[in-house]
Design a protein that fits this description.
Distance between the termini: 57 Å
Number of helices: 3
Largest sheet: none
Helix content: 55-70%
Order of helices and strands: HHH
Oligomer: single chain
Radius of gyration: 18 Å
Structural class: mainly alpha
């Protein structure tokens, strides 16, 4: 069986977020949670999959990482200039 991209769900202090998903996306989240349960992973509520899936998506988006590094470098350069 292929390895899923989302494995164990980290227990981190959550931030509350209210979103509306298309029904098809929620059905897919539910199916994903069921597959994780069958593979012996922890039983999980489909809503707990949203954060790790978004994190995985952003971590593997090369353009996002490149642009984010540029923003961070610009921010640290301006902070260094202010401290001089």
């Amino acid at each position: 069986m292929p390895k899923l991209k989302i494995g164990s769900i980290e227990d981190d202090k959550p931030v509350s977020l209210t979103i509306k998903l298309p029904a098809m996306v929620y059905r897919d989240l539910t199916a994903y949670a069921e597959i994780l349960k069958r593979e012996g992973q922890q039983s999980t509520d489909p809503t707990t999959l949203v954060a790790p899936m978004l994190a995985r998506f952003m971590a593997t988006d090369r353009a996002f990482r490149k642009l984010r590094r540029g923003i961070q470098q610009k921010g640290s350069a301006s902070a260094a200039a202010k401290s001089e």
